[in-house]
Amino acid sequence: MDTTAPNYSTKVVRYFIIASLIWALAGMTIGVILAAQLYWPALNLDSEYFQFGRLRPLHTSGVIFGFVVNILMGTSLYIVQRTGQCEIFNSSLSWMVFWGWQLVLLLALISLPLGYTTSKEYAELEWPIDILIVIVWVLYAVLFFGTIAKRKVTHIFVANWFFAAFIIVIAMIFVVNNLEMPVSFMKSYSIYAGSQDAIVQWWWGHNAVGFLLTAGIIGMNYYFIPKVSERPIYSYRLSIIHFWGLVGFYTWAGTHHLVYSSVPVWVQNIGIVMSLILWLPSWGGAFNSAMTLLQNKQKLKSDYIMLFFFSAIIYYCLATFEGPLLAIRWFNMVAHNSEWIIGHVHSAALGWVGMSAIAVFYFFIPRLWGKTELWSPRLIKWHFWLAHAGVVIYAVALWVAGIGEGYMWLAQSDNGELVYSFVEAMNFKAPWLFLRFIGGSLFVFGLVLMTVNLYKTVTMPSTLIEKEA
Questions:
Q1: Residues 253, 124 share a domain
Q2: Element (H, E) at 161
Q3: Is 186 inside a domain boundary?
Q4: What was the pLDDT predicted at 2?
Q5: Does residue 224 have a pLDDT over 50?
Q6: CA 275 – CA 439 distance, rounded (Å)
Q7: Quick one: 145 and 252 in the same domain?
């Protein structure tokens, strides 16, 4: 039996985590600019490159593919080595994946503001970049599964199951949704048409959320939550049930985006039913993570990293309750295309994904650089409350705006005429859009404080890191 300690590859993990932090700041700052443009349209600056339609896909791509994919790639490569007690499959391949993915993001940063887009949600990048994405993703899959094959333990830790699902499902749905006919170097058209295109698009769009922003983040949390709470997973069996529940039902739920459309009613109904079923595994997994944290109640009272994780779980419960609710026809009738949907998406993205990632940044980055404490525990407290204020203001403002907007669109007089004009609906939601800008700004300001805190942590000598009150 080989008793040599594995030579874990952590340098490439550092690069992925720092890239994730940079893209979080950049992508969310663009989001704040977009929120400002919605309230002050003059901030488009009469520029074709700086207007909402071109910046918006840059915001979503920066957050999803820059911030989230980088942190998932980095943490997955770290976790698969540690839990398998083995070295990475191929160190050179890991650097090819890192630089290949940053090239994808650079090309997105250039092409989207220039107007090169397929106009498909979360799949705007044109066909040459899509090909590069597939190549890098295959290399990443070889790297991850090759490392699993090298493991020195029989068991495959549950976090790796979630990472495996996120890698396989994203590859499958991305390729199918992006089948297209190129007509020039930077222009293509989908091979699907009409309702078929819509069904395939939302099979991709909803499952990009389901397996990047949900399954991947859950995998990350199933490793780091026990680490930070210094307790084992509350129920390992429940974590496996959580996995199979998400894998079994999530991929069917995407057509709830197409309720009241020309898509066949039975296809819409599948999306509605599967969305409702998803309540069960989602809340089961949330319960499992919450109980893992609550096993160490004493530390939870004062450890703000644990509190960030606990907050993320609460927002996960909220999002996985609200999503199925919005899939129900009556609620969908009010909410569809309104600000309510934007509030739902961002309460999940900022509350669940954002706070999970923030907790990982605070816990993981100091340890990657060999530090034992944060430079300023006081700043993490400030960040915690700024993040909460930002999410609550953002979400509540858009809930109010969306519900009011939805009712105004539906209101009719006795003779069937619309009671409210489009301008009146816009005037109603204007102050709430201002609050959205304030909420987003607070959240991003918290990220800036975190970045300063972490930079000071990794650059200060360990002997000079002092604990604040």
A1: no
A2: helix 158-177
A3: no
A4: 52
A5: yes
A6: 28
A7: no
Domain membership of residue 77 as a residue range: 8-159
**Structure confidence at residue 461 (pLDDT):** 81
**Rounded Cα–Cα distance for residues 303 and 380 (Å):** 10
What is the C-alpha end-to-end distance of the chain, expressed in Å?
Answer: 48
- The answer to whether 61 and 125 are in contact (CB under 8 A) is yes
CA 188, 126, 65 angle in degrees (round to 5)?
150
Query: 113 to each of 20, 80, 117, 373, how far by Cα in Å?
Result: 21, 37, 9, 41
**How far is the C-alpha of 30 from the C-alpha of 105, rounded, in Å?**
15
Instruction: Tell me: is residue 59 an annotated ligand-binding position.
Output: yes
Residue 77 belongs to some domain of the structure:
yes
Q: Specify the amino acid at residue 408.
A: M
459: Cβ contacts below 8 Å, ≥ 6 apart: none
Radius of gyration of the chain (CA): 22
Residues 208 and 128 grouped into a single domain: no
Say if residue 116 is in the same domain as residue 196.
no
Q: Could you report the per-residue pLDDT of 65-113, keeping only the tens digit for each? A: 999 999 999 999 999 999 999 999 999 999 999 999 999 999 999 999 9
Q: Is residue 383 marked as binding?
A: no
| Residue 1 binned pLDDT confidence (cut-offs 50, 70, 90) | very low
In order of 309, 351, 410, the CA distances from 299 in angstroms are: 13, 22, 50
Any domain includes 176: no
The CA distance from 354 to 348, in Å, is 8
206 is in an annotated binding site: yes
pLDDT at 171: 97
pTM of the model: 0.95
Do 200 and 56 lie in a common domain? no
Dump pLDDT digits (tens) for 261-292.
999 999 999 999 999 999 999 999 999 999 99
Is 257 assigned a ligand-binding role in the annotation? Answer: yes
Evaluate if residue 5 carries a pLDDT over 90.
no
Using alpha carbons, select from 390, 442, 446, 436 the residue that is nearest to residue 37: 436
CA distances from 392 to 27, 188, 232, 293, 311 (A): 20, 40, 31, 23, 12
Do 128 and 224 fall into the same domain? no
- Whether residues 196 and 142 fall in one domain: no
| Confidence at residue 462, expressed as pLDDT on a 0 to 100 scale | 63
Is the per-residue pLDDT at 463 higher than 80?
no
Q: How far is CA 220 from its chain centroid? A: 12
The mean of the pLDDT values for the chain is 94
